[in-house]
Amino acid sequence: MGSTNWLYIAMNFAIVLALLAGVLYVLKRMQSGNLLGMPTRKIKVIEMVSVAPRQKVVLLRVKDQDVLIGVSPQQINAIATFPVSAEELLAEPLQGSAVSEGANSLAPMARKLSAMLAAAQNKDKV
Fold it and tell me: What's the pLDDT at 50?
């Protein structure tokens, strides 16, 4: 009878850990703003380079502009702005930023699946 109680406790503990992991996953997705089609952030960090122990150069994308800024503990300076070409806008991931999320690994698969479905629909119509 004693082992049954330990088994029951261990199963309940595993369920609590699984629920905790699920809640943490949902909270992380909500924080990045891409849970169930929520709008993505307006400012995306494209790349960040450390040039000194407490100084960085950051490339941001805001709408159709890339902005290069210098960041230090005392100030933030805009160094340069560059227009973003249409090809770059189409090539960027659908959601999330490139630094925090990495490249969207599902986007190429989604495009392939969409192309396959369109080809199958066209084949059925002919």
Answer: 92
**Residues 20 and 57 grouped into a single domain:** no
Considering the domain architecture, whether residues 63 and 90 belong to the same structural domain is answered as yes
Scanning the structure block, which residue is given the tokens 């059925």? 124
Per the structure, the complete domain to which residue 18 belongs is given by 1-32
Task: Please report the pLDDT score of residue 93 as a whole number.
Answer: 56
- Chain mean position to CA 21: 19
Number of domains in the chain: 2
Tell me: pLDDT of 121 over 70.
yes
The answer to whether the pTM exceeds 0.90 is: no
71 phi and psi angles, rounded to 5 deg? -120, 125
Q: What angle do CA 14, 18, 19 make, to 5 degrees?
A: 120
**The pLDDT of residue 125 is above 50:** yes
Distances in Å between the Cα of 68 and the Cα atoms of 57, 58, 91, 114 are 7, 6, 20, 35
